[in-house]
C-alpha cells in the first residue's frame, strides 16, 4: 500500500521565505558571535591551523589559557564526553611542570602518557603511533619561546595534531545543483539511523530546506512507524510503502513523489543488520543505483570506538560512501571513534549526534572537538546554541536590563528556560571553558536548586492580580470585595525584600521555607550586581577570567548554612536587606 504520510504542514512554497530568513539569521548570528566572543568565527577557527611561529603559538596559548589555564591541570570527575581522554592527557602536561624547555629526555614520559591516553580512548594502534611520533618530532624541535611554558607548547602541538587527525576542516554536506538532493543513510542495527533521518530533516529545515523522508527499513516494521512519528515531530512528510515492497522499489517511488512535490532534500532510511552481510550490501547497492544519491552517509555509534572506523572503511570499500555520522557522542567518554574515523578510512565525519532530542545533531568541527578533548570547552558551539534558543531582540532587551540593574525574576525564568532548551546542564556546561570539570554532584545540586527556584518564582505575583476579601455580617449575609492590584513581585523583587508577609505567602504557596524565599530574593540582588559588572568588563573588550566563575562557585558552596536567616534578622528594612544580600554569598547552586 502506497501512502504519502501527510504529516507535513510545511509547504514547499515556504522555501524561499525560509531561505531568506536563514540568510538573515546567519548575518545577525555573525554579529552576535563577534560581540560575544570578541572575535569572528573564522578568526577563532584559524587557531586550528597548523602554525608554528612563536607569535602564533603564544597568542594561541594565551587565548586558550587566560582565565582557565589552571583548570586543565586539576583532575576531577568529568561529566562530559571525552572525559577519560582529557584526564589522561592532563597527566602528560603535569610532568612538564618546572621545565624550561622541551627536550627529547623530558618529553619521553609525557609522550608515554599521551600514548596511553589515546590507547585507552580506543584509538587504533597505528594511528596512535603516527600521532605520538609527529607530536614528539615537533616538540623537540621547538626550542625556547619567551613567555610560553613547555607544557603550554605541548598542549598547542597536541591540539593541532588532534585537529589534523580529525580531518582539519569541517566537511560540509553537499547539495545537488539540480533536482532534489538525495541522502542515503546506512549502518548497522540500533546505531541511530531512523533517529538521524528525522534529526537531519530538522537540521536542514533550519537552513530553509524542505525535506522528505523515505521509510526503507522493511525488516523492522516498527521502524516505519517510528519514522512516521518522528516525521510528525519535526513536521516533515514521510513516504512509506509498507514492508512487502523491495527497498529499491520504495526508493524509486519515494524519489518520484519528492520530485513531484519539489522537495529540496530526500533522506532515505535503510535496514540495519547485526553485522555486515552480503544481503545487506547487495540491497544497499540496489538502492544506491536507483537513487543516485548526492550523499551516502554511514551512521556509526561513537561508543564502538575504533570499530566505528573499521566499519566506515568496509562500507566505503563495499558501496562507496561520502562520509559518516557519529551518533551517541554524548555517551562516549573515550573518543576513539571521533579520533580514528578520518585517519583510518579517509572519509570525513560530517555530523555528530549528541543526544536523543531532534535538535541534537550538529556539524563535526575538528577544531572545536580538539578543544573539548583538551578540556577547553567549545565557546562557538555554546554561542550558536544560545542563538538558536534566544531571539536577538530578547538578548538586547536583557542586556539593557542587566546594564540598568533591572534584571528580575521574569528574566531569570526566561533565561533558565532558554538554557534548558539548549540541552542538559552537563552538556551546556561542557561547552564553557573551565566548566567541563564541574562534578556530576555539583550539576545535580544546581539542577535541584533551579527546580526549587522555579517553584518559588511561580508563586510570586506576575502582574495584575485579583484579590478577594470576604466580609460576613451574619450567617446569611456577606460581602465579597474584589479588587485588582498591581503587585508585580517578579518584576520588582524589592517588594519581597521589603515585606516579610509577601515572603511568607510565597513560601506557603510554593511549599518552600521562608528562609529559601529570602535566599532567593537576596540572590537576585547579588545577580544584578554581578551581571552588571560582568557586562561592563565584556563591553570593555575583554572576557572575564572564567576561572573566577569557578572560584566564585566554590566560595558559594562554602557559604555557611543559615547565612540568609542570620542576615534576615539583622535586615529589617529593605535597604538593609538588599545591602546584606549583595554583600554576602548566596546558597549553594543559586545564581551560578
Ligand atoms: N544518547 C543518544 N541516543 C541516541 C542518539 N542517536 C540515537 N539514539 C538512540 O538510539 C536508539 C536507536 O536508534 P534508532 O534510530 O532506532 O536506530 P536504528 O539504527 O534505526 O535501528 P534499526 O532500525 O534497528 O537498525 C534510540 O533509542 C535513539 O533514541 C544520540 O546521538 N545520543
From TrEMBL:
It holds the Pfam family SRP54_N. It comes from the Eukaryota. InterPro entries: AAA+_ATPase, P-loop_NTPase, Signal_recog_part_SRP54_M_sf, Signal_recog_particl_SRP54_hlx, Signal_recog_particle_SRP54_M, SRP, SRP54, SRP54_GTPase_dom. Its EC number is 3.6.5.4. Keywords: GTP-binding, Hydrolase, Nucleotide-binding, Ribonucleoprotein, RNA-binding, Signal recognition particle. The keyword Iron does not apply. GO terms for cellular component: signal recognition particle, endoplasmic reticulum targeting. Residues 348-361 form the SRP54-type proteins GTP-binding domain. Residues 551-592 are annotated as: Disordered. HAMAP family: SRP54. Belongs to the GTP-binding SRP family. SRP54 subfamily. This is signal-recognition-particle GTPase. The lineage of its organism: Eukaryota, Viridiplantae, Streptophyta, Embryophyta, Tracheophyta.
Amino acid at each position: 500500500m502506497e501512502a504519502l504520510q501527510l504529516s507535513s504542514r510545511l509547504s514547499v512554497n515556504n522555501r524561499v521565505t525560509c531561505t531568506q530568513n536563514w540568510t538573515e539569521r546567519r548575518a545577525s548570528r555573525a554579529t552576535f558571535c563577534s560581540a560575544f566572543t570578541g572575535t569572528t568565527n573564522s578568526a577563532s577557527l584559524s587557531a586550528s591551523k597548523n602554525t608554528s611561529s612563536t607569535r602564533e603559538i603564544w597568542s594561541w596559548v594565551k587565548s586558550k589559557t587566560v582565565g582557565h589555564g589552571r583548570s586543565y591541570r586539576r583532575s576531577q570527575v568529568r561529566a562530559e564526553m571525552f572525559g577519560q581522554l582529557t584526564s589522561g592527557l592532563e597527566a602528560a602536561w603535569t610532568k612538564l611542570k618546572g621545565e624550561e624547555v622541551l627536550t627529547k629526555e623530558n618529553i619521553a614520559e609525557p609522550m608515554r602518557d599521551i600514548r596511553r591516553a589515546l590507547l585507552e580512548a580506543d584509538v587504533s594502534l597505528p594511528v596512535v603511533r603516527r600521532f605520538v611520533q609527529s607530536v614528539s618530532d615537533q616538540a623537540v624541535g621547538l626550542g625556547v619561546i619567551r613567555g610560553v611554558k613547555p607544557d603550554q607548547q605541548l598542549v598547542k602541538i597536541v591540539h593541532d595534531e588532534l585537529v589534523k587527525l580529525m580531518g582539519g576542516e569541517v566537511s560540509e554536506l553537499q547539495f545537488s545543483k539540480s533536482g532534489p538532493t538525495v541522502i542515503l543513510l546506512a549502518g548497522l542495527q540500533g546505531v541511530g539511523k531512523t533517529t538521524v533521518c528525522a534529526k537531519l530533516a530538522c537540521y536542514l529545515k533550519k537552513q530553509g530546506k524542505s525535506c522528505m523522508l523515505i521509510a526503507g527499513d522493511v525488516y523492522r516494521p516498527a521502524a516505519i512507524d517510528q519514522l512516521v512519528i518522528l516525521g510528525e515531530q519535526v513536521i516533515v512528510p514521510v513516504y512509506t510503502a509498507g514492508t512487502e515492497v523491495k527497498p529499491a522499489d520504495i526508493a524509486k517511488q519515494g524519489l518520484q513523489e519528492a520530485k513531484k512535490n519539489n522537495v529540496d532534500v530526500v533522506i532515505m532510511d535503510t535496514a540495519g543488520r547485526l553485522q555486515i552481510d552480503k544481503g545487506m550490501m547487495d540491497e544497499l547497492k540496489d538502492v544506491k543505483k536507483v537513487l543516485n544519491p548526492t550523499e551516502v552517509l554511514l551512521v556509526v555509534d561513537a561508543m564502538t570506538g575504533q570499530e566505528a572506523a573499521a566499519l566506515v572503511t568496509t562500507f566505503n570499500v563495499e558501496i562507496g560512501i561520502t562520509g559518516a555520522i557519529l551518533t551517541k557522542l554524548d555517551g562516549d567518554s573515550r573518543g576513539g571513534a571521533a579520533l580514528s574515523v578520518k585517519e583510518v578510512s579517509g572519509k570525513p565525519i560530517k555530523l555528530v549526534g549528541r543526544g536523543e532530542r531532534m535538535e541534537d545533531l550538529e556539524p563535526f568541527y575538528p577544531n572545536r572537538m580538539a578543544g573539548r578533548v583538551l578540556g577547553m570547552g567549545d565557546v562557538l558551539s555554546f554561542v550558536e546554541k544560545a542563538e538558536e534558543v534566544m531571539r536577538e531582540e530578547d538578548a538586547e532587551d536583557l542586556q539593557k536590563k542587566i546594564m540598568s540593574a533591572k534584571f528580575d525574576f521574569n528574566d531569570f525564568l526566561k533565561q533558565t528556560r532558554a538554557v534548558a532548551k539548549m540541552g542538559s546542564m552537563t552538556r551546556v556546561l561542557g561547552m564553557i571553558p573551565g566548566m567541563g570539570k564541574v562534578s556530576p554532584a555539583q550539576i545535580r545540586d544546581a539542577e535541584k536548586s533551579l527546580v526549587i527556584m522555579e517553584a518559588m518564582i511561580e508563586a510570586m505575583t506576575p502582574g495584575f492580580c485579583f484579590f478577594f476579601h470576604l466580609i460576613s455580617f451574619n450567617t446569611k449575609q456577606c460581602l465579597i470585595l474584589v479588587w485588582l492590584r498591581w503587585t508585580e513581585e517578579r518584576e520588582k523583587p524589592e517588594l519581597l525584600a521589603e515585606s516579610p508577609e509577601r515572603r511568607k505567602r510565597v513560601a506557603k504557596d510554593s511549599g518552600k521555607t521562608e528562609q529559601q524565599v529570602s535566599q532567593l530574593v537576596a540572590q537576585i540582588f547579588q545577580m544584578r550586581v554581578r551581571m552588571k559588572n560582568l557586562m561592563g568588563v565584556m563591553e570593555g573588550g575583554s572576557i572575564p577570567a572564567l576561572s573566577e566563575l569557578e572560584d566564585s562557585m566554590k566560595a558559594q558552596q562554602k557559604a555557611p548554612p543559615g547565612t540568609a536567616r542570620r542576615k534576615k534578622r539583622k535586615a529589617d528594612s529593605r535597604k538593609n536587606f538588599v545591602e546584606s544580600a549583595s554583600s554576602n554569598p548566596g546558597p549553594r547552586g543559586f545564581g551560578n
